[in-house]
Amino acid sequence: MSTRTAEAEHAATRESDMVRFEAKVDETGPTAPLLDTRCWLWRGATDARGYPKFWLRGNSVTAQRAVYVIAGVDLAPGQQVVNLCCNRLCVRRSHLAVGTLSDAHALRCRGRHRLGAGELRLIQMVVGGGEYSAEQVAEALGVSRGLVKEIVRAGSGFRTPHLPRFGA
Ligand SMILES: [Zn+2]
Asked: Structurally, how many domains does the chain consist of?
């Protein structure tokens, strides 16, 4: 098989993954208080704990992880996709962030969690405004620097040009 054909097949697979995915997304969810945009709710299958799942290239993955994989973003094994909007059914790209496992615990929206909507807004203000660096805030809160940067980006309504259909 020529390289060209392999590339075309890869693109076709990606396109069909995207079409299958989008067929299960309801874009009329509630407006997330922190992000001021609507949640895009997963209407497909969920696991026993209510997390969205999607069958992707022979594996069952969370729908949130599928958003990144379909976009061609490589996630390391330890990296977690977390919902900034606290809605576990939401798969809107701008409501998601990549963090570590401990970030996922810090952002856990049920029960006791260290970062609520207020803290997220505060992070956006102090880091986005240049008052403190992402490193300083990450250390103070016990989360990764990467997560702090993702939160700041979410607050500024970050765009993902390569992923227009997954929502800005
Ligand atoms: Zn959301």
From this structure: 1
Measure 91 CA to ligand 1 centroid, in angstroms: 7
Cβ atoms of 106 and 141 within 8 Å: the answer is yes
CA of 57 relative to ligand 1 center, distance in Å: 25
Q: Give me the domain span that covers residue 57.
A: 3-167
Alpha-carbon distance of 14 to 32, in angstroms, equals 29
Structure tokens at 34: 């922190």
- Reply yes or no on whether the pLDDT at 167 is more than 60: no
Average pLDDT over residues 91-101: 86
**In angstroms, rounded to a whole number, what is the distance separating the alpha carbons of residues 5 and 117?**
47
With cut-offs at 50, 70 and 90, classify the pLDDT of residue 158.
very low
pLDDT, residue 116, reads 62
Expressed in angstroms and rounded, the spacing between residue 8 Cα and the centre of ligand 1 is 33
User: How many A from CA of 76 to the centre of ligand 1?
Assistant: 23
